[in-house]
Amino acid sequence: MTLPWTRLNASTSTATATRAGPAEEGEGLRCATEMSHNYVRYEELAAAQSASDGLPPRRCCGGVRRALGWVFGNGLHEHRVIRLNAKRPTTRRHCRNVINNQKFSLLTFFPKVLYEQFKFFFNLYFLVVAISQFFPPLKVGFLFTYIAPLAFVLVITMVKEAHDDLKRWLSDRKLNGETYERLCAGGRVERVPSSQIRVGDLIAVQTNQRVPADLVLLRTTEQSGTVFLRTDQLDGETDWKLRVAVPSCQRLDTNHALQSLAATLYAAAPTKDIYEFIGELSTPADGATAAAVAAGAHAQASPGGAGGGGGGGMAAPLAEPLGLENTMWCNTVLASGTAIGAVVYTGDETRCMMNASATPTKVAGLDLQINFLAKILFCFTVSLAALMVLLPPGHSPSLVLKALAFSRFVLLFSSIVPISLRVSLEMAKVTYALHMFQDEGMKGAIVRSSSISEELGGIEYLLTDKTGTLTRNEMVFRKLHLGNHCLTSSGLDEVSGLLRDAWLAEAAGEAPPPLAAQARDALLAIALCHNVSPVAGGHSYQGASPDELALVMFAASCGLLLIARDLRHIVLRRVSDGAELAYEILQEFPFSSESKRMGIVLRSRQTGELSFYAKGADVVMAEKVARSYWLEEEVGNLAREGLRTLVVARRRISEPAYRQFEAELQAARLAKSAALRDQGVRGCVERLEVEMELLCLTAVEDLLQPHVQQTLEKLRNANVRTWMLTGDKLETAMVIAQNASLVPRGGAFYPLVARTALEALQKLRGYPQGVMHAPCLLVDGTSLELCLANHQVLFLEVACAAPAVVCCRCSPTQKGQIVRLIRTHTGKCTAAIGDGGNDIPMIREAHVGIGIEGKEGKQASMAADFSLLEFSHLQRLVLWHGRNAYLRSSLLAQFVIHRGLIIAMIQAVFSSLFFFASIAVYNGFLTVGYATIFTTGPVFSLVLDEDISQENALKYPELYKELQKRRHLSLKTFLIWTWKAIYQGGVIMLGAIFLFDKRLVHVVGISFTSLILTELVMVAVEVKRWHTIMIACEVLTLLVYAGSIFALSSPTLLGTSTFDLPFMLSVEFLWKVSAITAVSCVPVWVGKVFSQRLAPEKATKIR
Questions:
Q1: pTM to 2 decimals?
Q2: Is 465 annotated as a binding residue?
């Protein structure tokens, strides 16, 4: 069986058609076969394309090619030819239209969860310890003692994973179960769930309904032939997108005619690019139905038919190029009307699924530090166990007995590596996220990655976007420059008067004054050259660009109102006399980041005059317009005022010139290759953009976000170096940096503008490093590229030494590259904040990614670790919540380690005093109770501690500098806490042995009670600001332990008495415990007080 048909370019248009396959392929295949003599087999086209790319022709069967694609990743996705309304629309099987975001299945849940848990050192270590207790020679206590902590961690993790996966499954089932109308051949309509939609189906989508697959828009109920889509779930942009129905299908009278139409739809191979689509729809020239075309094909194929290549055959089909404007991507929402589309991509081949990449896993530096300390603790455990085996004097036992004793001691000292540490930290991270969510000062904050909350407490480099992040992305029109006259937003009456003068002069048949004519032409261009649509009768507007909205609203305020806009027409109204100006849209070339401009070809309904309007960035438009003496100077002046500029130009076109242009453009759009199509269209437009008439220069202001200046000043005082990475002009970025206080008052700039590598090197060497009040480094895009390519190390040294850096004309890739280089060069903690899709690369590269929900949508917010509504919330997030998260986790981690070390030291002292016997001093219930109900509450309550008040943390941002040194959890502090544990464990056990007089059970009671009281006292010593919950935890823990003394003194519970109740109620017990606890805690407390007196922290002074 051969593959479907596709059209070659004009050079192969004389090729004769051959049969596509056997008769059993159905009427739809025969229809496609005989539709045109200009079609050839897809295999021949693929071979020709492969040869042009330097690849061997693909002649293997589809199954083999797909199999190779799974292995090598280059043959899985293929372009396709779809026969609409055919019994078998395609000859290949495509992906099922099923959304599956689940992480696990019933079969893989337990294996995957267990693997994810036991790849960590902590869990794997305790798994080995727990398994060892099944072997009698290694058993040192109750199996429950070692199984319970591990089981608790696993159960909590499994419940969390199962809950999250269940939510994903329910969400997927809801989406897959949504029903849609499927239009079948012959006029039949049926409702099908989304999961049963296939490539080639005609699907009807209603208003506010999710688009279930990638569709080509064929027909809509809107008279304009256009619909609006909400794409915020796809690209993060909140502005509605205009989509256009295929003209030949829109012209059909009814949907029934569409269901009977014989057409062949070509779609390029699916890609991740949501801004590009290459396709073509071929329909019979006479609009024949599928049945009629099939009958004609059968007649031509019969011996007596008038087939062959003669003129009696069917007319060549009409080919219409399809582009992005004809598509409706999956997971967008239809905002208006009813749309009927042909399914071209399903399931994993849709744009949204192909762009669904997992967010990179980020690990907090504190977690890495704790992992390192855990390895030290493990080595300490092994060393201590080895000492217990090697120290005993006398006859040396066999190697086997030594190995057995060593293993038992490792198990007895297993608390040195506390499994509860990971549980405590995970619960603490959840608590921090809850505090951020409940903070009234940063409403709307969302924590999407709670695992890196501690990184907020040590940020040294902040990289920020400009538009929408430091500014509101709310454009306000400021100036209209006409060359010899500048009109401002404050002089609307003057502009309106000029327009009136121009209209009155035209009505009288006179030439308007020069300035009035200039103002009229400029405002007319502003009101026509855009992609804005009026809403609610022209009282408001909807558009993809805030700049365009500001310009159209300015034209309306001056008396030139946009009242109607559809696919083919624009209607303006002159407010002065109510006259309407109608224009026919012949061609439109939307703005793109590559072209940096847009254009539109219009025909006036009143005069029939053809005009081409264009507007764009000055760097591009300066080459398109006729030479101007004032353009470059005024662009620089407006940029220095912090204004965003656009150059507007016009060219009048004759009818013959337009016809030639239209033919060339249509030929370029029919190219099958995306590269050839883009190149052809770009060439046609560039030939039109020659010697254009410069009409005006517009200037709009992007308002600053609230409290930006105060936020950046506080971050600068906190020793956070801020880099601004923007795609805007150098002059504009410099003004915004000054206005936003990125550069301090009176601060200077050091412009690094170079065009050669040597010039860039000289500029870098000339930067005054190490001087007080060093200037802000100002780099443009070209110079940045030169520096990164030729002088990367020197550039990073200079830039990292600067108090602030501004990089202009930055691409998204460069933003991500800069963040990555700072991370690798300095090793310092970085944070990136932005609001648009172009900021995602740097957000993902930074240690901490922060997204702002702004005018550009939620794309950056969804990709970030933390989401904010305003830039000013950053100061609370970093200076307050970041501070608390780092300090609390540091203290909590060291306290949990101390808790495990102290009981291990008690065990070591006990074993060494009793002939180095590997016997547990405490039974399993006491060991488990010590790590849970007897200490967890007070220890975990440390996550509520505050070293200073929130007011002081924000008032004195200089305190943040201490956190950047990362001294609160270091090898030094770890050794201090280790020494505390060794001292206190030794004192408790030696004190209990020294005061022991009658029974061993008294040693257990005295030492364990002293151990619990020591932990409670140590918590009280470390607390800096008492919280009600802390006091409650201390009191409740004491009460619980007191109750457990009675319970564990009863032989009926454990079969033997753990405590001697009469002794523990005696005065003798109380004074012995009090004495041991005092000796254990008082020296530690005194040492802490002396250290604070001799070298107090800055926070202590303020507190």
A1: 0.72
A2: yes
